[in-house]
Amino acid sequence: MSRVKDVTTPRLQNFLEFQKDPLFFFLNMLDKGDIVSLRTGFKPSFIVNSPEFVKEILVTKDSYFRKGRTTKVLRRTIGDGLLTTEKEEHRRQKNYYQPIFYKERLNHYAMTMVEETKKLVETLQHRKNCNLSDEMMQLTLVIISKVMFATDLEKNKEMLAEAVSETIEQTAHTLLSPVILPLNVPTKRHKIHKKAISKLENMIYEIIKQAKENPENYQMTMVGMMLDTTLATGERISDEEIRNQMMTMLLAGHETSANLLTWIFYVLSQNPEVERKFHEEIDAISLLEESPFEVYSKLAYTQQMMKEALRLFPPAWLIYREADKDVELLGETFKEGSTFMICSYAIHRNHEMFPNPEEFQPNRFASGSNENIPPFAYFPFGGGSRSCIGYKFAVMETVLILAIIGRKYKFRHIEGEQAIPDPLVSLRIKDGLRMEIIER
């Protein structure tokens, strides 16, 4: 019996429901079959619900697939960077990019994470409330900028955050749109998008210029490392390629962490027992006497809490794959051009694998407790050759920021404020989240 099931609702209805509320659409499809055919005709589209098929697509038969539509849309902004290149070019870039996230570098980055978070703690003092989404976005943007460029963005961080946000919003709108117009078509959205790209690009090229003129100031930064890299061909990485990688990090390297942090502080406000255990753990750790990496390694419950938040609110909530040749998956045959949509937000809520899936239960990820979770029932950082290369950076950053802010403050949900998931390129909270600040 085939494990591919046809959806029974009309195509137009499916399309309208997807456009209106993508997350609800995928949740509604979760029990319709291991793979659900949307019966889209010439170019078949499928929703993948089974962890077995997720593994088959992302890992086992990885070479049969390309990112497809995602690449086409993202390339308009970031060019040919690690997030958009395919096959051999992606392997080439990943090879020189990986040392950026080696342990000794992460130790160095951790100092920046701690330093900038402490500055935020000071600015929140005596304030009654804040837009937590904005605060986390600006904090992680400053951190990634210092790590990449050794550049102090204090004066320009709001402008830069706005440019990044506009770029992400326009990219998300295009990604979910049925028709992709060329970026040179002068629509209102395209004008906003191009202006935002120009701001980011000008800053990056100026920093590349400064790094070449004063290399000693950029030795421990990502841009400095790339300028020093010699490829297997004996050539250096071009300025354009460095620009593409820096755009990738600016857009993908901070917003995901910012959104995750906002979601975690929100669910803590809704779960007092979890918050109590979190505070007990971080209060028992010396943030001054130990290195940031040692602090991170000792925060076991905080890490569980982060993993559970990644289950409920995975920043990379949707993965696209397109078959670039006919492929057989677990006995099912799919033709070239077939598109597969893998929604981690929905799959992470499968009640057969995660009892009471809507509840925030960090103990699901306690040592030994997650052994019964099937492979790829949980995949917040993707999998296979396209898994997130910076996941160790993101995990350490999230845990350290939680610990430093959590030692000083807790946040409370303001009456009337709603935390509605907003599935853009990353999973945001719609219109941000205002929270009451309470000093501990």
TrEMBL record:
Coiled coil: none annotated. Pfam families: p450 (PF00067). Keywords: Heme, Iron, Metal-binding, Monooxygenase, Oxidoreductase. InterPro entries: Cyt_P450, Cyt_P450_CS, Cyt_P450_E_grp-I, Cyt_P450_sf, Cytochrome_P450_Monoox. Belongs to the cytochrome P450 family. This is Cytochrome P450.
